[in-house]
């Protein structure tokens, strides 16, 4: 199985995907994480990453039921993707979802 992990159509095979236990903390299943990775609506730098020295990638994508998820992942130099966070997408990321407009203050 190949999983698209970037807007540049970079593909990684399943052995290159790691899902850390911290990604399961909010009850998101591995299959839903894989689905969100395979169908990303947004991929970019995670500006909320706790460690500025470790670049984190933010991925927004749907689970198998179509619910919006937010994932945080590390992408290693060899292309390995390590998902460290997964939860229902928070409202603060809604403007990044395709077709959504930025809300005005």
Topology record:
Elements: E1 2-4, E2 11-13, E3 17-19, H1 30-38, E4 42-45, E5 57-62, E6 68-75, E7 81-88
Parallel strand pairs: 3-7
Antiparallel strand pairs: 1-2, 4-5, 5-6, 6-7
What key attributes describe this structure?
105 residues; mainly beta; 33% strand; 1 helix; 9% helix; 5-stranded mixed β-sheet
Average of the residue pLDDT scores: 81
Shape: globular
Reported for the largest beta sheet, the result is: 5 strands, mixed
Radius of gyration: 13 Å
DSSP helical segment count: 1
The share of residues in helices is: under 10%
Order of helices and strands: EEEHEEEE
* Strand order of the biggest β-sheet: 3-7-6-5-4
Percentage of residues in DSSP E strands: 25-35%
**Uncertain spans:** 1-13
Question: What structural class do you assign from the helix and strand content?
Answer: mainly beta
Number of domains in the coordinates?
1
Instruction: Quote the distance from N terminus to C terminus.
Output: 43 Å
How many E-type strands?
7
Describe the structure.
With about 100 residues, this protein is mainly β. The chain has one domain. It has one helix and seven strands; from the N terminus they run βββαββββ. A five-stranded mixed sheet has the order 3-7-6-5-4. The chain has a two-stranded antiparallel sheet with strand order 1-2. The radius of gyration is 13 Å and the shape is globular. The termini are far apart. The relative contact order is 0.22. The model is unreliable at about 1-15 (pLDDT under 50).
Offer a concise description of the structure.
With 105 residues, this protein is mostly beta strands.
